[in-house]
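dumping this here so i dont lose it
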């Protein structure tokens, strides 16, 4: 693809190849650092040049790894892959020396996502790219000690290569969008991902939040978050808040300020940070307070709508 390129058919973004030129220097399931994984190392036309690459779809940064110029991205809605599958895209980019991604930032399709580089354990300028055709953000070591996703696919199963020059593609079965026809679909209804919440909207939490206080007794497995509810710490402490302002700990993951999960996963009131990557359905909307009611782990809670991001119902 080229800078600014977009492709939307039937209301769904096509997952475009983020590189203007592709020269694969290490393919999937290689004998070196790609053993047992579907990752590829891609350089551009000239060796050693830190070419820009672009967002293959509208995506959100969900994790960062500063030491290797690495970020995990996820599509804000379902996308269409080159193998015809329609699902969420979760993908990793690495080795960007000019790395400036932040957890929570959203990059529209066609905008610059990063630059090829050498940051971290890299040999030669390139971009390490690894793709899961799912919303699963699990990132774990395989039997060879190499990190991978669940539901990984090779690049030619993922990317449409409209406006991409394949210099060396390792024999991949590369497709342009015209090779995967789409049946026209009706325009999306008001319940689509237009960022106006309605009862029935599908949403995710947008951000990293502080665990301000744990509800007593600890076995209640509930916590208070002033940012999400607008309740003060004193009201939480003195039990003056409503039951629907206490959040269940279970679906929230303890993390650091970059969104990376901590090892112990034990909340500490006043110091722990947390996130929640699950998708919920809005039950009710309260316009005066700009709040939405969600059912989380069987418990109805009210949180500010501005901390929710609507995703596609498709």
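and the seq i came up w/
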């Amino acid at each position: 693809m080229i800078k600014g390129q977009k492709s939307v058919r039937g209301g769904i973004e096509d997952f475009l190849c983020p590189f203007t030129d592709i020269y694969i220097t290490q393919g999937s399931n290689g004998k070196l650092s790609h053993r047992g994984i579907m990752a590829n190392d891609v350089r551009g036309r000239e060796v050693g040049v830190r070419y820009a690459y672009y967002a293959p779809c509208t995506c959100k940064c969900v994790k960062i790894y500063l030491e290797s110029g690495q970020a995990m991205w996820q599509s804000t809605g379902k996308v269409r892959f080159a193998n015809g599958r329609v699902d969420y895209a979760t993908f990793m980019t690495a080795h960007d020396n000019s790395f400036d991604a932040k957890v929570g930032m959203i990059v529209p399709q066609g905008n610059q996502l990063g630059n090829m580089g050498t940051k971290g354990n890299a040999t030669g300028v390139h971009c390490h790219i690894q793709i899961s055709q799912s919303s699963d953000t699990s990132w774990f070591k395989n039997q060879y000690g190499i990190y991978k996703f669940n539901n990984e696919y090779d690049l030619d199963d993922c990317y449409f290569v409209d406006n991409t020059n394949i210099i060396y593609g390792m024999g991949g079965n590369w497709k342009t969008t015209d090779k995967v026809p789409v049946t026209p679909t009706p325009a999306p209804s008001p319940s689509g991902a237009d960022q106006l919440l309605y009862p029935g909207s599908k949403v995710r939490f947008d951000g990293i939040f502080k665990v301000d206080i744990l509800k007593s007794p600890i076995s209640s497995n509930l916590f208070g978050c002033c940012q999400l509810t607008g309740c003060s710490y004193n009201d939480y402490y003195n039990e003056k808040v409503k039951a629907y302002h206490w959040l269940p700990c279970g679906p929230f993951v303890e993390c650091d300020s970059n969104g990376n999960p901590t090892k112990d996963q034990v909340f500490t009131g006043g110091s722990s940070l947390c996130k929640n990557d699950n998708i919920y359905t809005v039950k009710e909307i309260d316009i005066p307070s700009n709040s939405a009611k969600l059912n989380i782990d069987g418990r109805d809670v009210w949180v500010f709508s501005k901390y929710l991001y609507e995703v596609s119902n498709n």
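Residues 10 and 185 are 5 Å apart (CA to CA).
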